[in-house]
Every structure is written in C-alpha cells, then in structure tokens.
Amino acid sequence: GALQAGGLVAVPTDTVYGVACLAQDSAAVRSIYSLKGRNGAKPLAICLGDVERLYRYCHVNVPDELLRDLLPGPVTLVLKRSEELNKDLNPFTSLVGVRIPDHPFMRDLARACPGPLALTSANISSQGSTLTVLEFQDLWPQLSLVIDGGPIGDTQSPECRLGSTVVDLSVSGKFSIIRPGCALAPTVEILKKKYGLVPESS
After folding, report:
1. 83 vs 48, 49, 59, 80, 118, CA distance in Å?
2. CB-based contacts of 46: which residues, under 8 Å, 6+ apart?
C-alpha cells in the first residue's frame, strides 16, 4: 500500500538495507534521489522477484541458464533496457541494472508489485551502506515505512558493506565489472569458466 501510494520503503536485502519505490512511478523515483542527495546521473537498479520477469524490462543477450546461475543472489546484472521500463528511470542511459535479491521477503514483495521496484542502498549518497535499520535512522522521517529484517550479515565485517557485485552483460560475449561488491570471485568464475565470457578491457 505504501509503495502504491508513491511512498519510499526501507527494506532488507541479501546484502545491505535498501530503499525501494515503484520504478514506474516517476514522482517516487524523484523522491528517492532527493532522499539520498544523490547525483541525478547515477542510475537506480530495478528489483524483480523472478528471472522470468526480467525479460519484460530488459533485452537479454546471455543464456537463461547464466541468469539463473547468478540470480537470485548478491549480484546486479546490467543489461539493455526495454521500452516497458519507465522513461523517467535513468533517462540518460540505455542500460539498467537488475537485482533479484536472495531474500524471501524481498522476492515476495517484488512479486506482489505490478511492476519492478526501483532499489538503492539505504544511506545518504557517499556514506557507508547500512546493515541495521538504526544505522539509517536519519532517513526515517522521509520514509513511508521501515521494514526491520534484523541485522544483515556481520555488522563488524567491512566486506558485508560492499553491496552487490555489479556486472555489465550488455555486450555479447563480454562482461565488465562496474563494482566489485561482495561476490566478485564466484561471479567472475561463473562468467569466465562456465560461459566463456571475456572481460572487456576497461
């Protein structure tokens, strides 16, 4: 209900706490940027509940099996966006990052929504990611709802705050790592060894 009313909701994921809104709601998307004090040229990822739904919002040029080897999980896959996606979401790029968190609540929430969620970390831009709801209590007044899923991972471990590994798969046969994140080694292993993708020279 909070999301459908255009609200911003703090949510637990499999990596760090996030703030979500309906990606197809342009006003809500603008609210996320103002909440975070985020540079308008930094893209938001979309969050879905299942791999099947990804085909509606993205042009996929990798095997379905590759998507299922990495998703759900702590990885954001960057693909070419389809016409279905809100034009006001990341209007400056033809690509979009897709998250399917390996977190039962997040997957159920995403499945319950009519379209994708826009998802970003629950923190002020350039500050550290958050692993408990208390760590972002400065944002609470601007949120419609805060879902407390308890501490995520080990709050003492810097690795736990890295967020998802972001990998660009928009160029056929290649991959490039945009953010190493918390799952770099296993992700690269799958892309190179199992699927023979080659790293794009940066």
Report:
1. 17, 20, 10, 10, 16
2. 23, 57, 85, 89, 96, 97, 98, 99, 116, 117, 118, 119
pTM of the model: 0.95
Q: Quick count: other Cβ atoms within 10 Å of Cβ 128?
A: 13
Of 117, 115, 83, the closest CA to residue 99 belongs to 117
Residue 170: strand, helix, or coil: coil
Over the stretch 132-167, which tens digit does the pLDDT of each residue have? 999 999 999 999 999 999 999 888 988 889 999 999
Question: Which residue, 83, 13, 75, 92, is CA-closest to 55?
Answer: 83
pLDDT of 13-53, one tens digit each? 999 999 999 999 999 999 999 999 888 888 999 999 999 99
Place of tokens 């928009």: 170
Tokens of 35: 């909440």
Residue ranges of the alpha helices (H) in the chain? 26-36, 51-57, 64-70, 104-112, 184-189
Question: Contact, 11 vs 147, CB < 8 A?
Answer: yes
Query: What type of residue is 87?
Result: K
Domains in the chain with CATH codes: 2-153 (3.90.870.10)
Provide DSSP, 4-54: TTT--EEE--SSS-EEEEETT-HHHHHHHHHHHT--TTSPPEEE-S-HHHH
